[in-house]
Amino acid sequence: MTSKEEFIEIYQSNIHREGADKLLEYLCSATSDFFTAPASTRFHGSYAGGLVEHSINVYDCLQDYLARPRVQELYGLEFDAETVAVVSLLHDLCKVNCYHESMRNVKDKEGRWTQVPYYEFDDALPYGHGEKSVYIITGFMRLTREEAFAIRYHMGFSEDGNKQNVGKTFEMYPLSFALHMADMEATYFLEGR
Fold first, then answer.
1. Is 22:140 a contact under the CB 8 Å cutoff?
2. With contact defined as beta carbons under 8 Å apart, do 176 and 154 qualify?
3. DSSP characters for 114-156?
4. pLDDT score of 161 more than 80
5. Coil, helix or strand for 34?
6. 122 burial class (0-12, 13-18, 19+ CB within 10 angstroms)?
7. Is the backbone of residue 76 left (phi > 0), alpha (psi -120 to 50) or beta?
8. Does residue 175 carry a pLDDT above 80?
9. pTM for the structure as a whole
């Protein structure tokens, strides 16, 4: 099964709210590069298809985090399958259509200049990171407040902006912290260089 097929299977099995079909239709359309885009320019998933793989990895990591006895029993965190799928699979929609393949000159082992492909980041809708993902999603379907805050603050304290908002959001909406942890686990442990 390809990453695209796996993503679609998880999406269609779990996300059933009004507008979900239109969002998936957009992601699969020629106007979106979601299934071929990298997840970053140089770091995790910096290859074609890296974004969809990252999204699936975050989904798996979030499910594992939420299944921990401590998380369930001590913290009392419990979210339905749809919410888990929505926040993890869609948290990085802000990256759709932002990466463009280009060429750059680098020296090879013998000291000769050679051209190699790389990704450039060019955001035609510079609306931030998490907030842009929320904006895109809500153009198709509604999010709960907790889902919106989780997606908006999934970058945690590395996000630009008011750091006090991050801590306050983690306290008010624990799904934000859980998604952040899943995103970091996927990024640094599953997809590291």
1. yes
2. yes
3. EEEEEEEE--SS---SHHHHHHHHHTTS---HHHHHHHHTTTG
4. no
5. coil
6. exposed
7. left
8. yes
9. 0.92
